[in-house]
Specification:
Blueprint (H helix, E strand, L loop, with lengths): L1 E4 L6 E4 L2 E4 L2 E4 L4 H8 L7 E7 L5 E7 L7 E7 L1 E8 L10 E7 L5 E4 L3 E7 L4 E7 L8 E3 L22 H4 L16
Antiparallel strand pairs: 1-2, 2-10, 3-4, 5-12, 6-11, 6-13, 7-10, 7-12, 8-9, 8-11
Length: 188
């Protein structure tokens, strides 16, 4: 397993080792002991989610849940490819409002760990893309929040421009970063 960090503390890219032969390959996608060692803390997952996006350029996000129902997410693309994004929402962080992005593909089996305190979103790069993610807390409608995917203050360099057919009604009306309450701290 290869672990990579970013200029923003928190998110971690994980690429499993693939063992292959003429039949295909085998990869260990999650191993609690190695994951705990890589992050320096134990993570308990409680829910698995999956989405299918039919069109290239579909943007989902930027989503997060507030505490006490904040969710850490381990994201992977099981069919197709996505540009996956995490935005730092920790108000006392030196990287508040900054983002990281990584391409996740079914072929690479790579994953992105996004801790509580970050908004998450992705843009599909291939048709009929399937994304799976494990989360550390249950979905809670009253804690479900978001920030505008195209907020110029964040400035995400999306690989495609979302439109009326590739954005949900919810994602079309998310607030700007400047209008969000101070939901997260690095002390959380």
């Amino acid at each position: 397993m290869d672990i990579s960090t970013f200029d923003i503390a928190g998110p971690v890219a994980i690429t499993p080792r693939k063992l292959g032969d003429e039949r295909g390959y085998f990869a260990e996608l999650f191993r609690e002991d190695r994951f705990t060692t890589a992050l320096g803390t134990r993570i308990d997952f409680v829910q698995d989610n999956q989405s299918l996006s039919a069109r290239v350029g579909t943007v989902r996000g930027l989503h997060f849940q507030t505490n006490p129902m904040g969710q850490g997410k381990l994201v992977r693309c099981i069919v197709g490819a996505i540009f996956d994004v995490a935005v730092d929402l920790r108000v006392d962080s030196p990287t508040f409002g900054k983002w990281i992005g990584i391409e996740l593909t079914s072929e690479a089996c790579n994953q992105l760990w996004i801790p509580v305190g970050f908004a998450h979103g992705f843009c599909t790069l291939q048709p009929d893309t399937v994304v799976a993610y494990r989360v550390t807390n249950y979905y809670s409608p009253e804690h479900d929040k978001g920030v505008a995917w195209n907020d110029p203050a964040i400035g995400i360099d999306w690989p495609a421009q979302a439109d009326g057919e590739t954005l949900s009604g919810k994602d079309k009306v998310q607030p700007l970063l400047a209008d969000l309450p101070q939901w997260f701290s690095m002390k959380d």
